[in-house]
Amino acid sequence: MEIITNLFRMFFKDSIKYTKIKNENPNSKYFGIVGIVYPILALILGGGAIYFSLKLLNDIGGFNNIIVAIFIIIGGAALGIGGALGFFSYVIRGIIVSSYQIKLNKKTIGVVALIVNFLILCASIVLLFYIIKHNL
């Protein structure tokens, strides 16, 4: 529940920043640059967390102690869920700030940021299926 609240808080902050930039400097490229950086961070952080979570869960058979195995399962699940939530929050925020950039005067960088967002989203889905196929 707190994650959803944080998403709304980020959206509200970006909305206030958009209104301020729109009134002061409509030629700003801030949202376009941020819209490109957010999905890249999402792929690195979220994808890495999901990959290492699957790697942890895949290597569970080598542990003889049941307590260690249980803690690794809990840690791997928490890491995977946290990585997925972080990934989606960055991608959603990247799409939001890209749409704000499209509303400003420099529309091209907003469109490029939106394309980068969707390309990284598609690439991450393909990467996730690849990791699942070769890890499990």
Task: Report what the structure shows.
- With 136 residues, this protein is mainly alpha-helical.
- The protein has one domain (33-135).
- 88% of the residues lie in helices and 0% in strands.
- The protein has 4 helices and no strands.
- Helix 2 (30-58) runs antiparallel to helix 3 and helix 3 packs antiparallel against helix 4 (107-135).
- The radius of gyration is 18 Å and the shape is elongated.
- Keywords: Membrane, Transmembrane, Transmembrane helix.
- The chain crosses the membrane at residues 30-54, 66-88, 109-132.
Helix and strand topology:
Blueprint (H helix, E strand, L loop, with lengths): L1 H23 L5 H29 L7 H38 L3 H29 L1
Helix pairs in contact: 1-3, 2-3, 2-4, 3-4
Keywords: Membrane, Transmembrane, Transmembrane helix
Features:
136 residues, mainly alpha, 4 helices, elongated
| Number of helical stretches of at least 4 residues | 4
Task: Summarize the main sheet.
Answer: none
Mean pLDDT across the residues is 77
Rg measurement, Å? 18 Å
- Roughly how many Å apart are the termini? 31 Å
* Global outline: elongated
Count of beta strands: 0
Runs with pLDDT <50, length 5+? none
What fraction, in percent, of the residue positions are helical?
Answer: over 70%
Helices and strands, in order, run as HHHH
How many domains in all?
Answer: 1
Strand content: under 5%
| Structural class by sheet pairing and helices | mainly alpha
